[in-house]
Amino acid sequence: xxxxxxxxxxxxxxxxxxxxxxxxxxxxxxxxxxxxxxxxxxxxxxxxxxxxxxxxxxxxxxxxxxxxxxxxxxxxxxxxxxxxxxxxxxxxxxxxxxxxxxxxxxxxxxxxxxxxxxxxxxxxxxxxxxxxxxxxxxxxxxxxxxxxxxxxxxxxxxxxxxxxxxxxxxxxxxxxxxxxxxxxxxxxxxxxxxxxxxxxxxxxxxxxxxxxxxxxxxxxxxxxxxxxxxxxxxxxxxxxxxxxxxxxxxxxxxxxxxxxxxxxxxxxxxxxxxxxxxxxxxxxxxxxxxxxxxxxxxxxxxxxxxxxxxxxxxx
Length: 315
Hints:
Layout lengths: L2 H9 L6 H8 L2 H10 L4 H22 L11 E5 L5 H14 L8 E4 L1 H4 L7 H12 L3 E5 L14 H14 L5 E6 L1 H10 L1 H6 L2 E5 L4 H14 L3 E2 L1 H14 L8 H21 L7 H5 E2 L1 H5 L3 H4 L15
Parallel strand pairs: 1-4, 1-5, 2-3, 3-4, 6-7
Helix pairs in contact: 3-5, 7-8, 11-12, 11-13
């Protein structure tokens, strides 16, 4: 081919503006929402952005008739409770919908009880009904390792897994499955179920929050409900977090939310039983140190010989 012909061919090449495609997809506001909703989790947010970039480029490649086959989108989210896995799954479903990888973009969140029956012939209809509801969107299976119980010969979880495997393989363009749970248990689950492991392309680990991040999460939760912490209340809640993290069954943001609900209950009782009957708006909004320090965590969670140095609001 002559140089003139090459230049002529090159001038006729189609070009696509990737920034324009990004704006047109409307996924920026979803990514921004994820940043605003979740404190910390930088590695998770980075992986979600990388996945979104992969899908955007894949869509552009299709427009340029560069076919590479549909990317595998099934995922596994691992981490402790309360680390934002469900929230990220919800935003991921929105991204997939806006980029055209699922028809509707809804999220169906289930556990073993929603999929597995207690007697013969019950599991298949339950699993298929859940899949039907999730089709066109994302199926989020929390604590997915409970589907597999090899120690119980009469357990029907294996039947549900088999149906899920068939669906994940045959309906890849109409359903995305996200499995979630503790990392060590999910690793064991995949080791026992290589068919499921081979279908999961994206593994994202959710780290625990540190105390400062949990305090920031608490303040964000309160602001959404028109509450706030006084300065002494913030110091008390920071100490509460530090102690609560040492106790059993700590669930990150979930434990923080539960603690705030109990603090609001104590605040309401303090206001109702208090001598001050004429209340200002700020009184109704503010959680004081005494609303936090009344928690039994300050008795049960205090290490031996340690003194809790928290100033009451009145001091």
